[in-house]
TrEMBL record, chain A:
It comes from the Bacteria. This is Uncharacterized protein. InterPro entries: SCO2524-like.
UniProtKB/TrEMBL annotation, chain B:
InterPro entries: P-loop_NTPase, ParA/MinD_ATPase. It comes from the Bacteria. Gene3D superfamilies: P-loop containing nucleotide triphosphate hydrolases (3.40.50.300). It comes from Actinacidiphila acididurans. The keyword NAD does not apply. This is ParA family protein.
Length: 613, 305
């Protein structure tokens, strides 16, 4: 199924406005307010496209496009929509603020007990989670940018007051999210003999190299990274000492929440008391990817040009950027470790910290690798290998192939992969986190990779893969009842399996809108230029130019006559072909072929005539 | 309520649209007066199909009154005098519809103290007698417009609601001109402020009306060859952007009347019969006129954006 970012996104928006607006009023519904993650995801479904795609902007009512406005007609008229969005965002900020005026990043109903018999405590449900920190960064930046434009457009007194309140709350939330993000970062050092160490050595060695060789390679490969971490990050004394020992392995990334005993971050901003951490200091692949995605927005072009960060936030952003760089380099290095097969190519990936095995983790590592490739303008070889990994993941997850009886891949889609949250038992029964968005994540990374590739064959492979995955994702929309047209309804695809019922899932819905935004990025860049086509087009062009010249040696026709008109048309086309031959050699060739045909009609006619004499 | 209809250029459909709006309001039961201050070229009578007043009345019109040569300007009862066959039977429930024509050989004239006083009297009288008083001003900055700004700034008319409609066609030049007419250095706002109006208050009383707008998504424009259609849509987008930059965007727009042959060629009232039985006019046009007529006193449409 062809991906049409604009049309598909409009359909999603229409479904959201149908679901969320009753008589023009926003309805949070049953689950609203329970989880800051879900609410942020829901708002991002609107705000993310609105900030990333010029055609979908809502902050300038005078230029809102008609199809966009039609899709949102349930929400109200062109002038009402931005005012309503301000109200909804302010409502979100108010809801997710604790009694002591501190922004709350609660996971809420996204947390579940590991043992279904148990019930989580209130305290546990209110715990912050990296998903929420990351979403909050993205949502806050989107909100600040939105307000920056909209506040110059409205003159209504009550809205202006609301805008001021919202801006203050958003800035506090952004700062608090960045501080929390810093306090959730973790560096974990372990001995090669420990179970974690053995898992990592096995993963890196790929059964080819002995643990000792792997350790040596690890030392060499990550020596500079190790010293950067030791020199520039504030670590616990114990961790810092062990990290200096070259015989120890380490990993870095984000834990699921604030790390236990994480030091307070000194800040001049008023963000209320910083809560104590609870999470064990172990990086999780999933949360690392989530964090990297959010942090990236802090130094996007948009954030910089609009000047969305204040000095204090800029300082925090720099600290986060350092961790972002380190983490990305580390995992990209791990994914491509060694000289032979990549550890990433050995699917499924086995995590060291939680010692779990799943395609989902392979996808997470691939996601970091893709981001790293995007940043480094990767080589064709790296790219081609990653393409193959993506294709295999789609195949193994039964996205591009048929589900078999009692297929293990069902787990990936419904209920999803469950992550134990280490350290959560300090506040009640042990908790876990469920990730059910595999297909949407896979689609997002495939599209990102596709946008990166400038090699026609891998670009084409990725595009076809993306379309296949999209086909699967699109069919998983809910067909009836609450949230019609949104996600997720895995049962629609695998009717014979015991998959869960259709249930509105904002995380999947949000990922799909992100995919559509990424897909637009795919089409706004110029098409890949093929060298063969370019040389063919220029040869055609030279022949056509020559033939036109010789045609013009014939007696001049009257300008308005049919021959005159044809020749003028030919000249215009020729000029156009020459103009675009560098960018679109294929189009240039097509135009030139038309010219050649027309010129030949004239030439052939003359030849026939001369034969008759 | 006084409604001033202005435009920077001629041929914007100001008179014909205003007359249609007046007609719609009368049909809806309001008493409506249509005051033809288009001193250069009085056309309203033609739109209402009132032959005696075609091109202005011989004498006793608005010019005569303002110069002090008559105690009252001539009034024409449109329902009674029109030759339009549909209009002649006044629909039940319809309000009065009265035309105050200009003089045939009137032309523009200077505004003196006496003229102002008479004009003030006229507006006050009409306002107490009618629900809606549409004042059709000449194109561009004219004496009529200065007079309207001057009179509405006087303490006597402070309590009288007045609103301004600025008509423009949907083209680059017209958008720029309409913006200039309102926001330019010699525009309505500047002129109003110089006469003692509060700038923000006056700005909130001004709205734009787009006339003769081709809709690229509707027939017949949606049926043109694809290249032309793509071109039109792009132009439309560009115009919207230009309008937004010039403060003429949707936020300040009260209505948009589609390009309509009946308005374009015949400059006449569009009756329900034209749309429903003879079908020479489009439903969309009728709806747009109804919406515009309704928006005249819809406070939400006039609130700060």
């Amino acid at each position: 199924m062809q991906i049409k970012p604009r049309q598909h996104l409009l359909e999603v928006w229409q479904a959201i406005s149908r679901h969320s607006f009753t008589d023009g009023e926003w309805e949070w519904g049953r689950t609203g307010g329970l989880s800051s993650v879900a609410d942020a995801e829901r708002l991002l479904c609107l705000m993310y496209p609105a900030t990333e795609i010029p055609a979908f902007r809502l902050d300038e009512p005078d230029t809102t496009e008609r199809d966009v406005q039609t899709a949102l007609k349930n929400a109200g008229g062109r002038l009402e929509i931005p005012a309503k969005i301000v109200g909804i965002l302010a409502d979100f900020m108010r809801t997710h603020t604790t009694d002591d005026k501190r922004p709350s990043f609660s996971g809420g109903h996204y947390f579940s007990p590991r043992d279904p018999e148990h019930v989580l405590t209130e305290e546990q449900r209110a715990l912050g989670v990296v998903d929420s920190f990351s979403m909050s960064i993205t949502l806050s930046l989107a909100t600040l940018g939105f307000l920056k434009v909209y506040e110059t457009k409205t003159r209504r007194g009550e809205i202006r007051a609301l805008i001021d309140e919202l801006r203050a709350a958003t800035e506090t939330r952004l700062t608090a999210a960045m501080v929390s993000m810093l306090r959730s970062f973790s560096v974990n050092v372990f001995d090669p003999e420990e179970p974690q160490g053995r898992t990592l050595c096995k993963l890196l060695g790929q059964g080819q190299a002995s643990d000792r060789v792997v350790l040596q390679q690890f030392q060499r490969r990550f020596r500079s990274l190790r010293s950067i971490i030791g020199d520039s990050l504030v670590l616990g004394v114990d961790v810092a000492d062990r990290l200096r020992d070259e015989n120890q392995l380490f990993e870095c990334g984000w834990s699921w929440s604030l790390v236990k005993d994480a030091p307070l971050v000194e800040t001049t901003a008023d963000i209320g008391p910083q809560p104590d951490g609870i999470a064990r200091s172990v990086p999780y692949l999933y949360f690392t990817v989530v964090a990297l995605d959010g942090i990236q927005d802090l130094f996007s072009d948009r954030t910089l040009t609009l000047g969305l960060l204040n000095a204090e936030q800029q300082r925090l952003a720099d600290a986060l950027r350092l961790r972002w760089e380190i983490t990305q380099q580390y995992w990209s290095g791990i994914a491509r470790f060694g000289d032979g097969a990549w550890p990433l190519e050995d699917i499924p990936w086995r995590t060291t910290g939680q010692r779990q095995e799943s395609e989902y983790f392979s996808l997470s590592v691939a996601a970091i690798l893709v981001q790293d490739l995007v940043r480094r303008r990767a080589t064709d070889d790296d790219l081609t290998r990653t393409v193959a990994v993506m294709e295999r993941l789609a195949e193994r997850a039964r996205v591009t192939s048929r589900m078999t009886l009692r297929d293990g891949a069902v787990q990936l889609h419904s209920p999803g992969i469950k992550l134990p949250l280490q350290g959560s038992d300090a506040a009640g029964p042990p908790m876990m986190w469920t990730m059910g968005d595999f297909s949407a994540q896979l689609l997002k990374r495939t599209i990102q990779l596709c946008a990166l590739s400038r090699n026609p064959s891998s670009h084409d492979r990725l595009l076809r893969l993306a379309e296949d995955i999209f086909d699967h994702v699109w069919r998983r929309r809910i067909r009836e009842g609450e949230g019609t047209g949104l996600w997720d309804n895995p049962g629609a695809l695998y009717p014979d399996t015991t998959m869960g019922d259709a249930r509105l899932t904002w995380s999947t819905t949000e990922r799909v809108t992100e995919c559509m935004v990424a897909a637009r990025g795919l089409y706004i860049q110029p098409p890949i230029r093929s060298a063969e086509l370019a040389s063919l087009a220029s040869a055609l062009l030279s022949e056509a130019t020559h033939l036109l010249g010789s045609e013009q040696l014939e007696p001049t026709s009257h300008q308005e006559g049919s021959r005159g008109t044809t020749l003028t048309g030919v000249e215009v086309k020729l000029r156009r072909a020459r103009e675009i031959i560098d960018r679109q050699p294929g189009t240039a060739a097509a135009l030139t072929l038309e010219i050649l045909g027309e010129l030949d009609t004239l030439a052939l006619a003359r030849q026939t005539a001369s034969r008759g004499v | 309520m006084l409604v001033f209809a202005a435009s920077d250029k001629g041929g914007t459909g100001r008179s014909v649209t205003s007359a249609n709006v007046a007609f719609r309001r009368a049909l809806a039961g309001d008493d409506v007066a249509y005051v033809d201050f288009d001193f250069g070229s009085p056309t309203a009578a033609a739109v209402f199909d009132v032959p005696e007043a075609m091109g202005g009345v011989e004498s006793g019109g608005l010019h005569t009154y303002l110069r002090g040569k008559a105690a009252e300007p001539v009034r024409v009862d449109v329902w009674a005098e029109t030759e339009h066959e549909v209009l002649r039977d006044r629909p039940t429930g319809a309000g009065n519809l009265v035309l105050l024509p200009g003089d045939r050989s009137g032309g523009e004239f200077a505004v003196g103290k006496d003229v102002l006083r008479r004009c003030t009297d006229l507006f006050l009288r009409l306002n107490s007698e009618f629900d809606i008083v549409v004042v059709d001003l000449s194109a561009g900055r004219s004496f009529a417009m200065d007079m309207a700004l001057e009179v509405t700034s006087l303490p006597e008319l402070r309590g009288v609601g007045s609103r301004w409609l600025v008509y423009h066609r949907w083209t680059r030049q017209h958008v720029i001109a309409a913006s200039g007419l309102v926001f330019g250095s010699r525009g309505i706002l500047a002129g109003g402020v110089a006469r003692g109006h509060d700038e923000e208050d006056l700005a909130n009383r001004i709205r734009f009306v787009r006339a003769a707008v081709p809709d690229p998504e509707a027939a017949p424009w949606a049926m043109v060859p694809p290249a032309q259609s793509a071109w039109m849509r792009k132009c439309d987008q560009d115009l919207n952007e230009l309008a937004a930059q010039r403060n003429v965007g949707y936020t300040r727009m009260l209505g948009s009347i589609p390009l309509e042959p009946v308005l374009q060629w015949r400059e006449q009232l569009i009756t329900d019969e034209d749309v429903l039985s003879s079908r020479v006019a489009n439903m969309e046009t009728l709806q747009a006129l109804k919406d515009l007529a309704q928006a005249l006193d819809d406070d939400e449409a006039w609130g700060p954006a």
